[in-house]
Amino acid sequence: MKLVVGLGNPGERYRTTRHNAGREVVRCVAERARIDLDESRFEGRFGQGVVAGEEVGLLLPETFMNASGEAVVQALRGLGVETPARDLLVVFDDIDLPLGRLRLRPRGRDGGQRGLRDVIERLGSDEVPRLRFGVGRPPLGVDPVDWVLRGFLPAERGKLGRALPRAADAVACFLAQGVEPAMDRFNGPFEPEAETVGEA
Known about the structure:
This protein is of the alpha/beta class.
């Protein structure tokens, strides 16, 4: 069993904000695999099914971003995921990457991302595979905290619509082949015109 977690904030108020990009990636994975995220479990919205031939649980914590770790710990224990360093993937937004750019890593520090920080602290290890989804830096003079709690601009929505399925492809590749092959394939520049988006 593997676990994929989309970090963000709960509620409709936050659903379309940049800070919830990780949750939207997991929703995209769920939609493509016809997995319903309608079960209230592990302090979040949960669904279970098969993605890329692997049995997987998909989790959207209903805690706020900064307290994501408890939901992750509960899900790992409840699902019997024994090796998080191999079988867990945490997905979240990153303002230091251009819109749609992906960056997979098998481990490392939190880089200022408070949701990931809480996951690392509660697991007691930085060996947490993660997928960062670029949401772009704020314009000059805009507070980054305010920026991530805003929605995407109309001019960005077309690119976002192409980037989310590509991120779902990256999740599927991680599940089927592991983090290193997924890094090799998806950590390059985001060029949607040249990408052929496969099925998760």
